[in-house]
Amino acid sequence: MGCVSRARVVILNSALGPLDYRVPGGMAVEPGSIVVAPLGPRQLAGVVWEPDRLATEEVGDNRLRPLLTCYDAPPLKGPLRRLIEWTADYYLAPLASVLRMALASMSALEGARTVTEYRPTGIVPDRLTPQRAQALERIAGRQGLIRELALAADVSDGVIRGLVKAGAVEAVEVDIDAPFPLPDPDHAPPALEPQQRDAAALFVDAVRAREFAPFLLDGVTGSGKTEVYFEAVAEALRQGRQTLVLLPEIALTEPFLKRFAARFGVEPVAWHSGLRQSQRRRAWRAISTGQAKVVVGARSALFLPYADLGLIVVDEAHEVSFKQEDGVQYHARDVAVMRAKLEAIPIVLASATPAIETRQMAEIGVYKEVKLEGRYGAAEMPQIEAIDLIADPPMRGRWLAPRLVREIEDNLEKGEQTLLFLNRRGYAPLTLCRTCGHRFQCPNCTAWMVEHRLMHRLACHHCGHVMPPPRLCPECQEEDSLVACGPGVERIADEVAALWPDARTAIVTSDTIWSPAKAAEFVSRMERGEIDIVVGTQLVTKGYHFPNLTLVGVVDADLGLQGGDLRAAERSFQQIMQVSGRAGRGEKPGRVFVQTHEPLAPVISALVSGDVEGFYAAETDARRSAAMPPFGRLAGIIVSSEDLSEATETARLIGKTAPHVENMAVFGPAPAPLAMLRGRHRQRLLVHAARSLDVQDIIRDWLGKIDWPRGVRVAVDVDPYSF
Ligand code: ADP
Ligand code: ZN
Known about the structure:
alpha/beta; GIY-YIG endonuclease; Rossmann fold; 29 strands; binds zinc ion; globular
């Protein structure tokens, strides 16, 4: 028997496990090589794996089909392959699904070498309509596809095409593999304060040491954490190694890019879902060859094939949005730490309000805690005051208490900026019929339809279902009987407009800031002083630095405490601390007013008294005594089907076959928090176990024995965020 060269391949778009192939003569592959393999009549991309790490059905040499292509891209490296295995294992996800995140999209490997982009020429067209003038003003200095320029300028594609014909915009061919400009570590380093210098020195040493070293960088908002971790980035640059900076939202990318450019001379490489294919391809290739030195991105940037990663930073590390809730349900903060471990590099988790899990890791000495005391320079932390909504209620049909109204009035007179925070998009969270009480519910979800008055529609925030606001009540046919219940940001903006018709306001939510370009526009309007009052959701609570913003009003501090899950108090505290952190970041002091019905609630009194440590200590104790994370472990099992009885029966079967294990309890099944989502009925079981148990193994075993109907989906959420 001759020796056939074989390769074990994980196929990306297939539910099948790894398959063996013959490597044709002349093709060289190694573990990590990205290949194209035949599967039935199809040709599918896959990655070669070490045969001894993944079991498969043994197939004789003579039955092997040959691989078709090996891509001209660096093979995925060992540490990344181990990370992919770990993630699949820990989060009970198919290996191929995790692997897909590393390859991002196959367009990174194939496709055209150049792309046509457009940019203004500086020529003013003969016929300058108001739309053309607006477009030219807004696309100054930009370059992109026609569509992107049109979006940035808020005009139709036709307007941009017209400008091309008129010579005011020109086409340029861009090489898709053009190298990214290199950041300069010595471009504009700040003079650090002594405590910043000490912190930076620790990070710089860790980058040089090339060993796994997890840090918690803990300091109030505005304490200068970013400047400190920038020193670590500078060191990685000097060493010629790559840095990954993870941010929780793509809306934060744009201000970060600008700030990075001010420090390092050029923008870093951005990675997020807003990139188009050609940008993705360029970034992916530069990351895999090591040419892209600093990458800033949302959680998906975590699995990219860095050629020589030297440092990871997770900024705003406490953020909920690092938890992925769709597809592979992983926590990017935790996977980032694992990646740092496997790559043997330092990682910095930066936060003003670290999660209890993270604080606990610092407490037991696994993470090294580096603290920055106080704000940088002359800036002081703002004073937080509670407004008791029972003692000082707003006028009927209004939401801002008289005290807050006076403060805003004052602030307007002083020419300073105000931020009103309410974590609710749209006009009102609930719409009902005044006559019969009918409430508008989403047909696909257990959720109310939310009125968005600006867009003239009702929308479901869970599945995206929209409908025009009906004039007739569908139940009792009464005309114009619909009333809005409760406030959303749009309603607060209405109240502001009624109180101060001359004030310039902006609503900041994912409806209005849906792209990095929109975020950039908002930032520059704030900086130019063109906005007096911002009304916004959690989107405005983090990252931004506006020196003239001196007043923050939290419209409803009790909102986050509803629902009452175990993290409610912690999340509420973090959110209000973060939004308070927007106030008084420059020389002018900031003030924060928190409207509440429960001024004595522990969260509120901790915020007002500034007793951060006391609050955390009480929360941590409560978790410890209930053996809740991080002192115990949880996993959710969500069973869903379009058919209600199929979902409930399968969930019941899973519940009945639960193994009896000491120090482990299974609760449910019960309807999941969103009992219906996107047309699927959802039941949930909750596993609560001691830390010492290998919950994943137990669940794998348990679910592996159950056959469920084809229409049923079972998803396991390991370390769920909400429960
Ligand atoms: P954090 O990341 O902790 O919120 P930042 O790093 O954004 O804090 O710092 C807050 C503000 O202070 C920023 O405008 C930043 O540029 C400025 N700053 C921080 N440290 C320095 C320094 N050493 N020299 C000059 N400016 C600094
Ligand atoms: Zn819905």
